[in-house]
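S., here's the first fold you wanted:
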Amino acid sequence: MSEDSSGRKNLRMPDDDQVFGVVTEHLGGNHVRVRCADGETRLGRIPGRMKYRTWISEDDVVILEPWDWQDEKGNIEWRYEEQDAEQLRREGHID
């Protein structure tokens, strides 16, 4: 990630089929409830490649990719660090 003189980092942004979300509840195992930027609340699944490397907790900002066949569920693709989440909030990407 590169940083310009104002301290702004170039952060990973969602692809066309992905949305920003905020984790609202940890449901146990590898499942979380996510309030997405498109107004939906979805069940998020933490994939095995992230499960033990990236701890996800309530109020974390994530990128979620909704499933094609079941829009109310999706996979967590990325979790932002706290300072990156603050930058996204300042720039108006999430509320």
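And the second, which I think is the more interesting of the pair:
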Amino acid sequence: MQLKQTFPLTIKRLGINGEGVGYFKRQVVFVPGALPGEEIVAEATKIHPKFAEAKIKKIRKRSEHRIQPICPVYDQCGGCQLQHLRYDQQLKEKRDIIIQALERHTRLKIDDLDIRPTIGMENPWGYRNKSQFQVGEKDGKVLAGLYGLNSHNLINIEQCAVQHPATIKATEAVKEILQDLKIPIYNEKKHKGLVRTIVARTGIQTGELQIVLITTKKELPKKELIITEIKKRLPEVNSIVQNINGEKTAVIFGRETATLEGKDYIQETLGDLQFELSARTFFQLNPEQTVKLYNEAKTAARLTGREKLVDAYCGVGTIGLWMANQAGEVRGMDIIAESIDDARNNAKKHNVPHASFYVGKAEELLPKWLEEGWQPDVIVVDPPRTGCDEAFLKTVLKIKPKTFVYISCNPSTLAKDIQTLESKYKIKYIQPVDMFPHTSQVECVSQLILKEGN
């Protein structure tokens, strides 16, 4: 295959990043925007030793599930990958993405596994409760948005179909304020300027709103004016925060945070629980689906009211507290001290005396507790995209809780981790949940049960 070569291609399935996957002369070809069942003319854009990338030159046979995306910058932005696929079909393809990961990274018999239909949303739009838009300047105009697909070209986003309208409205207002007050805007190429990111987060259930300005330096010119204008144009704002990040990095937040006006946090509600979300606190971006996800995890934990439960990678304690009313004792751990402070406060606020939270790594705390005679019946884990730490998985195999509940946001790392645990654990079922409609991402809850004789 040569660069720019055109060739016919039939798309067999969706890849993990939402691209169409086909085979030409037994070589795998990835085509963004192509859908399963489509017959296309493809043009090779990149040739790798084991695969090729291509673009659609022409669609000869369209998928019956192909629709017109509603977003005006869909092709440029790259934030969503599947707006051109009908929503009911997205749910089927996401289940298939999990199957593909298990086929690639495990030796399990896939046909024997109970992989359930994906749980979707009734209204799969306007669900994201937080936006992090990079700020830039073009022809004297302040822009805020995301860098385009595979580029450092800033796409100005004035409307977004998956963001909650409150976050878009807030970002637009702050952008205008920066423009009106002529606040210096960060230039990524020159590493000069001041304001680099606008973060807006809303409590979908509470209606509270937080604005975070991420700046390269602590000194913020016209600070009082900025605060006054934000309060005037966005009276619903409860919290205005500045975060300082002067590093040359793609990481959004720096280490130093200061509240400029209002509270340090906003409140959000999940079911019967209320959470205080400070600027850097991790919180699920789609609260409506989070309730479904956590309820699935609770069901998978098989709780009777007596179990000792561990919430590993616990963050602000969300999952542990969600399950606490059906557990005998809950212990959570995280390496971020601020998260553990929040978790302890959340446990106190919700009057959950049988939940305690610790700063540290699960692979260090669990063996220590076992020596002290405390062995968990259930471990629940919701790791980052990189999956579980290998040392943690080895610890689980030593400690052998009866039930292991794995909440995953990355099918590939889930599959690899399941293969590690497979020697002692049987997968009872996997339940996919669509947390991010119109993107290729899929979360799922896996119930692993200790095999007899272990």
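Why I say that: The first helix runs from residue 74 to 77. The chain has three domains: 5-66, 94-121+286-450, 130-278.

Talk tomorrow,
H.
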